[in-house]
From TrEMBL:
<dbReference type="InterPro" id="IPR025929">
    <property type="entry name" value="INSIG_fam"/>
</dbReference>
<dbReference type="Pfam" id="PF07281">
    <property type="entry name" value="INSIG"/>
</dbReference>
<keyword id="KW-0443">Lipid metabolism</keyword>
<dbReference type="GO" id="GO:0032869">
    <property type="term" value="P:cellular response to insulin stimulus"/>
</dbReference>
<keyword id="KW-0446">Lipid-binding</keyword>
<comment type="function">
    <text>Mediates feedback control of cholesterol synthesis.</text>
</comment>
<feature type="transmembrane region" description="Helical">
    <location>
        <begin position="69"/>
        <end position="88"/>
    </location>
</feature>
<feature type="transmembrane region" description="Helical">
    <location>
        <begin position="28"/>
        <end position="49"/>
    </location>
</feature>
<keyword id="KW-0256">Endoplasmic reticulum</keyword>
<keyword id="KW-0472">Membrane</keyword>
<comment type="similarity">
    <text>Belongs to the INSIG family.</text>
</comment>
<dbReference type="GO" id="GO:0008289">
    <property type="term" value="F:lipid binding"/>
</dbReference>
<keyword id="KW-0812">Transmembrane</keyword>
<feature type="transmembrane region" description="Helical">
    <location>
        <begin position="186"/>
        <end position="206"/>
    </location>
</feature>
<dbReference type="GO" id="GO:0032937">
    <property type="term" value="C:SREBP-SCAP-Insig complex"/>
</dbReference>
<feature type="transmembrane region" description="Helical">
    <location>
        <begin position="131"/>
        <end position="148"/>
    </location>
</feature>
<dbReference type="GO" id="GO:0032933">
    <property type="term" value="P:SREBP signaling pathway"/>
</dbReference>
Length: 217
């Protein structure tokens, strides 16, 4: 090469670290979007069951969809589902305890079916009092965890999710956003934490399965 001539710069190649970080970010975003839409779909279906049995009552002016669900419920549930589904495998990784129990899609689908059944029972099955219903749903929710999860981290996260979600719901009802018929646990039904616990376990299982599937791609 003659003096004074400069070598034309070729296309810059990204280092392996940058490529790895970009790949993980895209993977995380895709899983988050999938979890969001799963949460939206489940919220529409399950909320419809509750409204049909007059368990929850929304003011007429916020009835905004063909599923008779307040417009803000599905996106809120979708966002929460995405956060929970991404949190479970993240906690497993940080604890160094990858979850290996029943890690196949058929088990995840059965878990979803059981969760829908628990929610359906809360709206359809008639008990003499709410205490009996709450105890029954609590047993079913713990049974769901034992059947499809069995991890200490999963149980702890489920309890934390149930506590936070119930607290947020209490605040929403207190501020008149919507209401529960026949509340027996401050402003909500006493079985509501059981539903949130089962929902957390279910979305955690979906999130773990998505994380495992994406790691094999």
């Amino acid at each position: 090469m003659a003096e004074g001539e400069t070598e034309s710069p070729g296309p810059k190649r990204r280092g392996p670290y940058i490529s790895s970080v970009t790949s993980r970010s895209v993977n995380l975003m895709i899983r988050g979007v999938v979890l969001f839409f799963i949460g939206v779909f489940l919220a529409l279906v399950l909320n419809l069951l509750q409204i049909q049995r007059n368990v929850t009552l929304f003011p007429p002016d916020v009835i905004a969809s063909i599923f008779s669900s307040a417009w803000w419920v599905p996106p809120c549930c979708g966002t929460a589902s995405a956060a929970i589904g991404l949190l479970y495998p993240c906690i497993d990784r940080h604890l160094g305890e990858p979850h290996k129990f029943k890690r196949e899609w058929s088990s995840v689908m059965r878990c979803v079916a059981v969760f829908v059944g628990i929610n359906h029972a809360s709206a359809k099955v008639d008990f003499d009092n709410n205490i009996q219903l709450s105890l029954t749903l609590a047993a079913l929710s713990i049974g769901l965890w034992w059947t499809f999860d069995r991890s200490r981290s999963g149980f702890g996260l489920g309890v934390g999710i149930a506590f936070l979600a119930t607290l947020v719901t209490q605040l929403l009802v207190y501020n008149g956003v919507y209401q529960y018929t026949s509340p027996d646990f401050l402003y909500v039904r006493s079985w509501l934490p059981c539903i949130f616990f089962a929902g957390g376990i279910t979305m955690g299982n979906i999130g773990r399965q998505l994380a495992m599937a994406s790691s094999h791609v």
